[in-house]
Amino acid sequence: MVLPVVAIVGQPNVGKSTLFNRIINQRLAIVEDKPGVTRDRNYAQAEWMGHKFDLIDTGGITWEGGKIEEEIRAQAEIAIEEADVIVMLTNVVNHVTDLDERIAHLLYRTKKPVILAVNKADNPEQRSDIYDFYSLGLGDPIPVSSSHGTGIGDLLDQIVNDFPDDKDTEADDVISFSVIGRPNVGKSSIVNKLLGEDRVIVANEEGTTRDAVDTPFTHDGVKFKVVDTAGIRRRRKVYEKTEKYSVMRAMSA
Ligand SMILES: Nc1nc2c(ncn2[C@@H]2O[C@H](COP(=O)(O)OP(=O)(O)O)[C@@H](O)[C@H]2O)c(=O)[nH]1
Ligand SMILES: [Mg+2]
Fold first, then answer.
1. Ligand index nearest the alpha carbon of residue 29
2. pLDDT per residue over 35-47, tens digit each?
3. CA–CA separation, 6 vs 54, rounded Å?
4. 52 and 138 part of one domain
5. Is residue 97 located within the same domain as residue 142?
6. Counting atoms of ligand 1 from 1, which one is nearest the CA of 35?
7. Residue nearest to atom 8 of ligand 1 (CA)
8. What's the pLDDT tens digit per position in 134-178?
């Protein structure tokens, strides 16, 4: 399964690598007091509330002797190209800087969701000092402290909320099941009855072909996913294959 990609961008020293390590719960990226540290570990898989994703610390993609402008542009380009959700990280200690504004301008080009997080908001005063960041035009700033771990849950909630549906992994509490059986016994009709609507194509005629459909629904507060299997095939060969596939889907669902 292709996972959603989340990229962290921001000027040097705002805490991108600290945030990256915090989210993945490991110290893979090198955190440095000096800006421009090279050879960070850039990619890792992370998970929040059953949603898996790939996280990129774009700030690790620096090169020796590279100009800061070039690095920032490269970060933004990687994020815009590769990410499904972009986190722009700033910090409350520096307030809004020229570089923040330049990064924000680069990110205006994308239609992808951009979340603005304000790092180093270690205490309540700093957390209430984030209103300047509205001027970046990227929506509500989320205060976080990557070194203390505060605000990270709110940020992650927002991140997973912005995942495109087709790449989002389900939470673990979804019960998946399939309805299997011979062609034309009424599998699709049963599924439609369960869903309370005609969401699955029902065909009376032989020769109707279509693929399996995964349909999520909620009943009594419990989340289900019904995998409706392909039904009617005209030729025996195809039919056998389809039924085998249906059973396989049922076992792996
Ligand atoms: N006070 C404070 N310092 C932080 C926080 N996050 C990172 N730092 C510090 O900021 C410096 C730069 O962090 P780093 O993650 O390397 O920044 P990057 O260049 O954006 O990757 C390091 O000294 C970190 O310890 C935070 O939430 N609060
Ligand atoms: Mg870094």
1. 2
2. 555 445 578 999 9
3. 6
4. yes
5. yes
6. 19
7. 15
8. 999 999 999 999 999 999 999 999 999 999 988 887 555 677 777
Does 103 lie in the same domain as 140? yes
Q: Which atom of ligand 1 is nearest to the CA of 37?
A: 19
Residues 155 and 179 in one domain: no
The CATH number that applies at residue 74 is 3.40.50.300
Task: Output the residue whose Cα is nearest ligand 1's atom 9.
Answer: 15
**Cα 193 to ligand 1 centroid, rounded to whole Å:** 55
The pLDDT tens digits for 184-217 are 888 777 777 777 765 554 544 454 444 455 677 7
pLDDT digits (tens, 9 = 90+) for 207-247: 444 445 567 777 776 777 776 555 434 444 444 444 445 55
Task: Tell me the ligand closest to 62's alpha carbon.
Answer: 2
Centre of ligand 2 from the C-alpha of residue 68, in Å: 13
- Residue 142's DSSP bridge partners are 117
> Does 66 share its domain with 183?
no
Q: How far from the centroid of its chain's Cα atoms is residue 253's Cα?
A: 22
For 214-223, the CB contacts below 8 A with 24+ separation are: 215/191, 216/170, 216/174, 219/194, 222/173, 222/175, 223/170, 223/171, 223/173, 223/174, 223/175
| CB distance 49 to 141 below 8 Å | no
pLDDT at 163: 95
Which ligand sits nearest to residue 42's alpha carbon?
2
Same domain, 147 and 22: yes
* Domain final residue, candidates 121, 140, 167: 167
Indicate the residue among 109, 143, 167 that finishes a domain.
167
Give ligand 1 pocket residues (Cβ under 6 A). Answer: 10, 12-18, 31-33, 35, 59, 119-120, 122, 145-147
pLDDT tens column, 55-103: 999 886 655 666 788 888 888 888 899 899 999 999 999 999 999 999 9
Task: Examine the domain organization and report whether 78 and 162 are in the same domain.
Answer: yes
Whole-Å CA distances, 95 to 71, 119, 136: 21, 10, 11
- Ligand 1 atom closest to residue 146's alpha carbon, by position in its atom list: 27
Looking at the structure of the chain, the number of domains it has is 2
